[in-house]
Amino acid sequence: MNALQRHRRLTTIWASDPGLRGWFTTVNHTDLGRMFLMASFFFFIVAGILAMLIRAQLATPHSAFAGPEIYNQIFTMHGVIMMFLFAIPTFEGLVVYLLPKILGTRDLAFPRLTAYGFWCYIFGGTMMLVSMLLGIAPDGGWFMYPPLTGPLYSPGINTDFWLIGITFVEISAIAAAVEITVSILKYRAPGMSLDKMPIFAWYALVTALMILTGFPPLILGSVLLEVERAFGFPFFQADLGGDSLLWQHLFWLFGHPEVYIIFLPAAGVISTVLPVMCRTTLLGYGWIVAAAVALAFLSFGLWVHHMFTTGIPHMGLAFFSAASTLVAVPTGVQIFAWIGTMWRGRPELRMPMLHLLGFFVTFVIGGLTGVMVAVVPFDWQAHDTAFITAHLHYVLFGGFVFPVLAGLYYWMPHVTGRKRFFRLGEFAFGMIFVGFHVTFLAMHWVGLLGQRRRIPTYAPEDGWTAVNLISSVGSFVMAIGIAMVLIDVILNVVTAVRGTRNPWGAGTLEWAMIQPAPAYNFASLPHVTERDPLYGTPDMALRLARGEGYLGEPRRDWRETVTVDIASGRPDFHVIYPANTRLPIVMSAVTGLFFLSLLLKAYWITPFAMAGVAVLAWRWVWSLGRKEDIGPQAIGQDITVPHAAQVARAPGWWGSVFLLTANATFFGSLLFGFAFLWTVAPGWPPTEWLPASLWELGLGLLGAALAPAAMHGASRALRRGGRPRLGLALAFGGTGMLAVSVGAMMLHTPPPVEHAYNATLFVLGGYAMFHVTLGALMIGFLAARVRRGYASAARQSEFPIVTLWIDYLAAVGALALLAGHLPGLLA
Amino acid sequence: MLAGAAAIFALVMVLLALPFLRRGKDAPEARGIKVWIIGLGLAFPMAVLAALLAYGLTVGERLLPRAEDGAIRVEAEGRQSGWTFRYADQPGRSTSGVLHIPAGRPVDVDITTGDVIHSFWVPRLAGKLDAIPGYVNTLRIEADAPGDYAGVSAEFSGIGYAGLTFTVTAHDEAGWQAFLGDDPQ
């Protein structure tokens, strides 16, 4: 088989469906990455237009452009769209497109999940757009502090759009984070040990882990606030044992890591592009990885610096002020490592480099003002003024938009296969750079003059008129620059001439393929022996196309790849990906129906939507099964590895581990909320505890012990070729006992609308009940597998996955029951 | 702080510009790590930040209210409709939109809210402090000279946010006694 035949054969196997249909059934990461990026850029334009409206409003005093009702929606939506519908999805799109290519493999770990996440993002984003077009968009600020956003002061549907729409969109972030983590750990080219991994993948890994632990507190906060709004559970109402500060803690527990979730992928772009622009390699690879990890850890310890003015104790202030300044250290390490890289090489002022310089100038200023606001007395003055607005735009535009534009120009030839022809880009960069700094330097100034954030208008006597006008003019210059980038990209995509492969002379694997990328990425998978494989093997692309790597011979209609051992990069097991399917878009539509029913308070639809999701999820997993053993597979180079169905730690097991990480963070946040209300909120202790019952508690704990023990037994039995039925039946019984015990607890909980204690307990019970149902469904699924002959010792990988979930169920069930019964027992 | 920030910014810009002027020589990586990462990346920010933090914490400590110094106590309650002030020295007395204090004496403002979260901010007298449901936050302010000081709500609170302002009137000793002498409204 020659290279061309191999290309044709692989293309038939991997290609998306032709025509319009292909858009809806594709599970290919190249397609979905491009779709993600197009959608996120669309939202960037939308939010940019909103920013123009804000600047138009503030350009003159006593502006009659928009009243406060509309203006509040405009600035809220500007922030919400930029954060949730532009920044995070851009990270997802970039990583979905690049990661398998840069890691030398053929797709991400869970192709259908990529598609599901994308459609959740599109449907959720559409909900937000619709709310804006109808003039009922969220208007409580992107941070949504209750009680302003509570049922009493915001009775309209506006706030519900935020809580429900954004939670819907967050599904895509969590899905992408699980997928990215598993892909980086397991789906790499053979030989690529962790220390040979491209720096971009390290950054993506750290970011994904941060999403898994940073987003759940926000999701929890949204759930609690929506439950308060819809059913009157008083989580955030001080007179009923709630506390509005709980929201602030949950929100910033997410909100500060969010800043680094946005910055780190951009730093990954810089670390990848900058050395290539300087004809050298990155200085201090290990140091940069360590700095990124340190940044991730530190970023979870400084959320309180957004709350310096809420009256928290002085020791707290000192601690969080120290942590906030400390975070500048790993950032400094990265900045100076990059500058050191420039000193080592010969920097050339090509198009991506211009934006990288824009990054340096802007981000360093943003970092310095960041250190200023970490100083508590300064923050007491600057907090909630335009100074903060200016600071955060320096950090986010400097730390995200400039690097992303650098990445756009760097990888555009890869996406289009064309050479830049129209030279609008340099001029556009000048406009953006000058426009940005005029806009936001002025905003620092007017902030120090006392202009608050989020005011719709001001008086001429305030003395802010000239500065605001300058700022507005600058913003329009910047907007023209962005529009020129858009035109530049479109012109180049549509009309420019064909380019050469690897135009920048880069060393990473994404340039070792045809450009634009084929559906299968690599005709055969490379064996990696160094960090920049193309520097050592410049003819890598040709060799791979000739089938000299792994899995060079297409078999049946299998979309094949091979996973590796996490640390060493040795080949681990063989994977067959699922093919094109409509399932992801249908399932996200039904998920959307669930959220829509909550939004419109059509609660009778909700159970049907949940059942629909369950049925589709069942089909989703069922279709992966096989009735015959596949057995070990040869992957070329005389290496044979087991198939994924045979191993105890299949991709689904790894995915479950990281999904459960996010889930445990959610549950942990709930317990944190419980403890926080108990110790800090006014109005505690409640008048009555849950009437404790040793019988109910004992039954539940027994179930929590029985279910996992029986599941482990069933797993072991199958692995040894025995019959797992008895174990499954006992495990099912164990979940039943848990269900009875949790149900009794929820039934005996005093009315949840009367006190935050009751409400929290009810939600804990509901959480446990949800997992009991999930566990029962999973055990039922395995029983059906066994009955229909889909399980054997060589097809056993689903059993450890369910065991993992049952272990988790037992743990959270027991904890929820203890949290419910112990106070009453001890009282 | 501004001068320090400007100096650091200038340093980074010079370091950024130089490699374009000089043609790079491939120095050994170990040396680069020593200079750039350990020296400039780790040691330099740590030294600067430690100094800044110590300064910030001492200044912050000085701004805190202390119980023993016999400060005047007033209460400020924020609402979406405006601020109301009450006076410990004259129970029952309340004023709307104007807070009366004596000049030259420390005043502790007990900040509360009647509805959503607000923030009490008189830029020339002190930093801001939030009014949060269920809590009383105390802010120390002191006006050096008699006169009117503009105050604003500095936490977004919905439709009327822009207009949510108030005035702090600092009286000289005679004026303050006269104010206290007025009949309660």
From TrEMBL, chain A:
<feature type="transmembrane region" description="Helical">
    <location>
        <begin position="693"/>
        <end position="714"/>
    </location>
</feature>
<feature type="transmembrane region" description="Helical">
    <location>
        <begin position="424"/>
        <end position="446"/>
    </location>
</feature>
<feature type="transmembrane region" description="Helical">
    <location>
        <begin position="657"/>
        <end position="681"/>
    </location>
</feature>
<keyword id="KW-0472">Membrane</keyword>
<dbReference type="InterPro" id="IPR014241">
    <property type="entry name" value="Cyt_c_oxidase_su1_bac"/>
</dbReference>
<keyword id="KW-0812">Transmembrane</keyword>
<dbReference type="GO" id="GO:0015990">
    <property type="term" value="P:electron transport coupled proton transport"/>
</dbReference>
<feature type="transmembrane region" description="Helical">
    <location>
        <begin position="35"/>
        <end position="54"/>
    </location>
</feature>
<feature type="transmembrane region" description="Helical">
    <location>
        <begin position="74"/>
        <end position="98"/>
    </location>
</feature>
<feature type="transmembrane region" description="Helical">
    <location>
        <begin position="161"/>
        <end position="187"/>
    </location>
</feature>
<dbReference type="GO" id="GO:0006119">
    <property type="term" value="P:oxidative phosphorylation"/>
</dbReference>
<keyword id="KW-1278">Translocase</keyword>
<feature type="transmembrane region" description="Helical">
    <location>
        <begin position="390"/>
        <end position="412"/>
    </location>
</feature>
<feature type="transmembrane region" description="Helical">
    <location>
        <begin position="199"/>
        <end position="225"/>
    </location>
</feature>
<keyword id="KW-0249">Electron transport</keyword>
<protein>
    <recommendedName>
        <fullName>cytochrome-c oxidase</fullName>
        <ecNumber>7.1.1.9</ecNumber>
    </recommendedName>
</protein>
<dbReference type="GO" id="GO:0046872">
    <property type="term" value="F:metal ion binding"/>
</dbReference>
<dbReference type="InterPro" id="IPR036927">
    <property type="entry name" value="Cyt_c_oxase-like_su1_sf"/>
</dbReference>
<keyword id="KW-0479">Metal-binding</keyword>
<feature type="transmembrane region" description="Helical">
    <location>
        <begin position="726"/>
        <end position="747"/>
    </location>
</feature>
<comment type="pathway">
    <text>Energy metabolism; oxidative phosphorylation.</text>
</comment>
<keyword id="KW-0186">Copper</keyword>
UniProtKB/TrEMBL annotation, chain B:
<keyword id="KW-1133">Transmembrane helix</keyword>
<keyword id="KW-0812">Transmembrane</keyword>
<dbReference type="InterPro" id="IPR008972">
    <property type="entry name" value="Cupredoxin"/>
</dbReference>
<dbReference type="InterPro" id="IPR045187">
    <property type="entry name" value="CcO_II"/>
</dbReference>
<feature type="domain" description="Cytochrome oxidase subunit II copper A binding">
    <location>
        <begin position="69"/>
        <end position="182"/>
    </location>
</feature>
<dbReference type="Pfam" id="PF00116">
    <property type="entry name" value="COX2"/>
</dbReference>
<keyword id="KW-0472">Membrane</keyword>
<dbReference type="InterPro" id="IPR002429">
    <property type="entry name" value="CcO_II-like_C"/>
</dbReference>
<comment type="similarity">
    <text>Belongs to the cytochrome c oxidase subunit 2 family.</text>
</comment>
<protein>
    <submittedName>
        <fullName>Cytochrome c oxidase subunit 2/cytochrome aa3-600 menaquinol oxidase subunit 2</fullName>
    </submittedName>
</protein>
<feature type="transmembrane region" description="Helical">
    <location>
        <begin position="33"/>
        <end position="57"/>
    </location>
</feature>
<dbReference type="GO" id="GO:0004129">
    <property type="term" value="F:cytochrome-c oxidase activity"/>
</dbReference>
<dbReference type="GO" id="GO:0005507">
    <property type="term" value="F:copper ion binding"/>
</dbReference>
<dbReference type="GO" id="GO:0016020">
    <property type="term" value="C:membrane"/>
</dbReference>
<dbReference type="GO" id="GO:0042773">
    <property type="term" value="P:ATP synthesis coupled electron transport"/>
</dbReference>
